[in-house]
Amino acid sequence: MMKLFTQLGVVIAVILTLGASAIAADGGNPKKGKHLYKKQCKACHSVNSEGPELTPMAKTMGQWDRFFERDQHKSKPEVFKALSEQELKDIQQFLYDHAADSEQPQTCG
Ligand code: HEC
User: Fold this and answer.
1) Of 48, 49, 70, 102, which residue is 20 to 30 A from 17 by alpha carbon distance?
2) Which of 35, 36, 54, 88 for mutating ligand 1's site (highest number of atoms within 8 Å of CB)?
3) What is residue 75's DSSP assignment?
4) What is the pLDDT of residues 5-16, one digit of tens each?
5) Range of the domain at 27
6) How many separate domains does the chain show?
7) Is residue 102 part of a domain?
8) In this structure, what DSSP letter does residue 73 have?
9) What pTM, to 2 d.p., does this model score?
10) What angle in degrees, to the nearest 10, is found between the helix axes of 30-40 and 85-97?
11) 98 phi and psi angles, rounded to 5 deg
């Protein structure tokens, strides 16, 4: 009987882990995201540009998710409106994967 409960516990842990990763990994392609970030974001987010200098590790994974899901570039909405849903997902994935608290924080985009 104890063994059955242990196995059940493992199954539940696996389901929870998969569920948690599915929330953030929204089907974005981080390789495309990196390319898009350089093309669509860096011009305004480097030193001496219109917006503040920004790198993936400027924010945590949770902050990037909140930015893409809630803020949606509120200070300049036309930036996000010009991009497709998939392009935004790709960029979000790239930034998320290299956020400050990710396994591979990255300074350069
Ligand atoms: C046309 C110029 C422009 C482009 C293109 C642009 N941004 Fe911005 N961004 C801005 C400006 C201006 C602000 C507002 C800065 C402020 O409020 O002082 C801003 C703010 C932000 C912020 C909030 C700043 C912070 O420190 O929290 C984030 C995050 C951001 N942009 C991400 C992006 C991403 C990701 C892209 C590419 C999809 C992008 N931006 C493309 C101009 C731009």
Assistant:
1) 70
2) 54
3) T
4) 677 666 656 555
5) 2-97
6) 1
7) no
8) S
9) 0.82
10) 100
11) -120, 25
